[in-house]
Request: fold
Amino acid sequence: MINEQQRTFFNMKVFYFLAYFGFGGLFPLLTVYLQNDIQLSGSQIGMITSIGPIVMLLTQPVWGILSDYTKRPRMLLTFSVIGAGSMGFTYLFAEEYFVLVSIAAGLAVFQSAIIPLSDSMAMNYVFKNGGDYGNIRLWGAVGFALAVWFMGMLSDWMGLTVIFYAFAFVLFLSAIFSAGMPKESVMEKVDIRGGMKKLVKVPGFLVFLLVTFLVFGPIMANNFYFGLLIQFSGGSLAGVGFAFLLAAGSEVPFMRWAGDWIRKRGILVILFVAALASGIRWLFYFTGPTPEFIYMTTVIQGFSIGLFVPAALQYVTELAPKEVKATAVAIYSAVGNGLGAWFFSISAGVIMEWYSILSVYLFYGVLSLVGAFLTLWMIKSKKMAPTVT
Reply:
């Protein structure tokens, strides 16, 4: 017989798999749909892809307040996945640019609740009952990787509109399992204004925020534009899915090795190597490689993201004073996932309209390398490197 705890762990794993399957099946192929089927310009696509990060930045705190007020995080999570699935489905009935922007913004409102609510419930549950959050969250990465590969092949066969049917169906299905998530949710309170006053005095914090913006922003925006690059190079929709499968799948081993490498080499050294690898990858794509070479180099994404994400989070938490650690992490996330993703998404659309998708990756590469060399400067400035314990 399956006991209550086993059932809860099962529900969490399936929920993460389905939710990220939905995201992976929609967002990497959305730009391809907007360009090929709707015939939007580059700047229009850039606006649609960039509206989400800003909306999520503004609405995430609201979901946190609602969770604290209602004490019903499971209900809010179920409501948000149904809402996101419904909004995603409405893409099928829209062709006007401003309607598409409104749909992207509405989808982001609901999407902004899904990750923080589910993460806070899962982390609080394993803290109280034991277990490994990483082994739960890993199913999200598996779902995302499989979704892009599967939906790429399905889109080649049935057309790109299938991504909206699949997105809605999978998120509606995830609502069933969200109802079996843990009841508890603890979302840490942050004081952005007060915390920032303390954090600006911490040597290296503002420089690191700039590094995060320059390096992580292109990584996030690439999720939207990578499919267009592969199609430009002559690849198929199935090839887009295959590339994402390789890229996302390669992140797992590097994330597992990151801790040991950080202890041996130091946080900033690992951040520099990850940023450098990311910048070199973008510049290589600017040369217009064949799809085969693009597939071969997707492992660099696993290397750069698999090392940068855990190292960056550890750097922020070790650098920030104890009383503002949660605020430091929130600001770091807002700069990378919010401002960075917004800026590099909207810039990519404009550059793509003026020049080509290859020029987008020249832009990404140059600024990522600026971030890498800022990290190298931080290594030389010893006072900016926290002590790794």
User: Anything to note?
Assistant: The mean pLDDT is 83. The CA atoms of residues 94 and 375 lie 44 Å apart.
